[in-house]
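Follow-up to my post from last week.
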Amino acid sequence: MKRRIAALVPPWTDGLAHLQICLAALIGPSLISLWVYYTELIETLNIVCIWKDASQRVFLPGIMMHDFYTLLDGIWPLFWVPILTAVILAVVNRHGFHQGSKAVYLMRRLPDRWEYARRCLGLPLLTILLGMVLTVLVLLACWGLYTHFTPDYAIPPDQWKKFWAGIFHIVVPFLDWRY
Amino acid sequence: MLTLTNITKSYPGKKNAVENVSLSIPRGEIVGLFGENGAGKTTLMKCILGLHRYQGEITLDGQPLDRRNIEKLSFATSEHTFFPALTARDHREFYADHFPAFRGKRFDALMEFFELPTNKKIGSFSTGQKNQFEVILALCQGADYILMDEPFAGNDVFNREDFYKVLLGILEPEETILLSTHLLEEVSAFIGRAILLHKGKVVADKSMLDLEEEGKDLMTFVKEAYRYKADRVLQALDKLTETEE
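User reply:
Got it. Predicted complex:
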């Protein structure tokens, strides 16, 4: 394991330390995302629901729950943390091959053509990939919480259409294609 | 045989750094590559190593140079290509991992000869030690062609002398050195052939044996090739003196 990680970072780098940074950039924002979302969800529920017998939330007649994607607004920035971490790591790694010597000349003439790219981008790309997987998992968990607290009749229609339109808006923010 | 055919390297908006260079370097030679600053020595070496894009063709034993045979070339440069934050021992491991022909015994012997510490970060070495280590790596990679670009810049004369002797002592018949340096007189006794570059072009290419037969030393040969005007300095001094008066 240690050797495999070492192959994904510059030779002078402590692979496990870099891995810890990446894991922190992945797990930390994911947990915070879940917490922020949960708080937002509960606040919204408090607006659209009333308490019955001080123990059960009941939706007010004719009131629908807010759209799922609107509750996610507060957590999107956190998904950028792994990407930002990966970009910084990649830049630092690459810079290291030019600092104090031109080790890049050695890397570029190694028989393994991917060695240089792997040591600069290996862990950052892995971080981005894991970040994407975690994003999906966090979103699924958020959806799970949303459906758990919202009865079917109170969920507005076309939730996933709206969700994808919301995603598109995040990727291409200057085009407001929200549903 | 390392063969360069019509190698041209140009930088945008500048004159050609290397222009139409064609050379053949057979195995087992120690070749000196000489030229003024900016003559194109470093650029030519970097073209050979694939560090620069170029026009023309470079082959090694008839095959184009690529990842399959690049390990047959090694490189020592005054810019250094080691990892400053690693120790010599780490480098040994790295090279052994990446270059199947790495010469571990030679590495150990040279490290011992130059009394270089194996467990100290290379970044903490003196400039002379760094140069020595850079050359050791190039000599131990297991390459057939060892390219050296001003490898001894910053080393004292005794140190360099030692190195030339060691070099001659350890080189095997198949190993070839292409040595770029300004230290003409120092290396004249060690090289077998001199190639002169001027403004990116080869202006002279002669074996030391031919020079010997012609009764010329390397310095004379270089001066002739560059049409060096011996009275240049005197003329300049005269002019300067006139101005002063």
